Amino acid sequence: MRPVELGHRKDHPLEMTFHSHPYYEIFFFHSGRCNYVIGPNVYSLSPGDLILMHGMTLHTPNPDTRVPYVRSMIHFQPEFLHEFMNRKYIAPLLRPFEELRNYRLQTGARKDEVERLLADMAALQDSPEERAYERFLLRFIDLLYVVGELCRSPMAADAVDGVRSEREHHVQRVIDFIESHYAEDFSMEDVERELHVSRHYLARVFKAWTGWTVFQFLYQRRINQAKTLFLVDGELSVSEVSERVGFKHLSHFSRVFKQWEGCAPEQYKRSLAASPRSWRS
Question: Which GO terms describe its molecular function (predicted)?
């Protein structure tokens, strides 16, 4: 894998799944209709929206399949900047990812500039010219400067959050509840009592907005936290991790983990132990 990779103007249908990864991501929404869930936040995207992602946070899109869902994604390893640039210039470029972590920007008047940079990067990434990838990286650095400038602008803040629809507001409140209580044993009746909204309505709106049931989202949040614990503390046993993320029975944890990750938690833990330490740091 190259240190920076671009998927430009992709419009193929997705098999929707919550996922995380150990690299940073820039997501740009060209066109379509899409709700995007990132950790404890849910966004209704508009063309020109740009999302910064800190990788390891659980995220998934829920696009409207009746219209083309056109997006560009850049995945990059932040470590490469230390090899590519003078140290004093690196911190400002990474600050938006490290301080904001997962953030939606509205590019506004700079939408065309961002799209031109992405198009230039796509052409250079596919070019057979000898120095094309170095020129690709220079365009990427330019894009990082644009992102940094957008983050400094008060107009870039999520101003639309103040005018969220009622349904989006309820979905956000359910996600906030899960984020606060995912390690506890709770039911939809508990959610209803906490939010003072019918559990049947919440379940229906959550599924329509995110594409997932409340408990599918809960289990993915627990499994993602389990993966994080395995990654940062290799001394924890599978049963300790199971208990910490909210499963009352180890067998249930193992079954759900394998369902989502395709392997047993013990196997996942062993694979991390065998991985190079540099990847895990």
Answer: DNA-binding transcription factor activity; sequence-specific DNA binding
Per residue in 22-54, pLDDT (tens digit) is 789 999 999 999 999 887 788 899 999 999 988
Is residue 139 within 8 Å of residue 120, measured between CB atoms? yes
Is there a single domain that holds both residue 12 and residue 151?
yes
Task: Specify the number of domains making up the chain.
Answer: 3
Q: Which of 126, 161, 196 is a domain's end point?
A: 161
Closest CA to 105 of 145, 53, 158, 148: 158
Let me know whether 219 and 204 are in one domain. Answer: no
pLDDT at 273 over 90: no
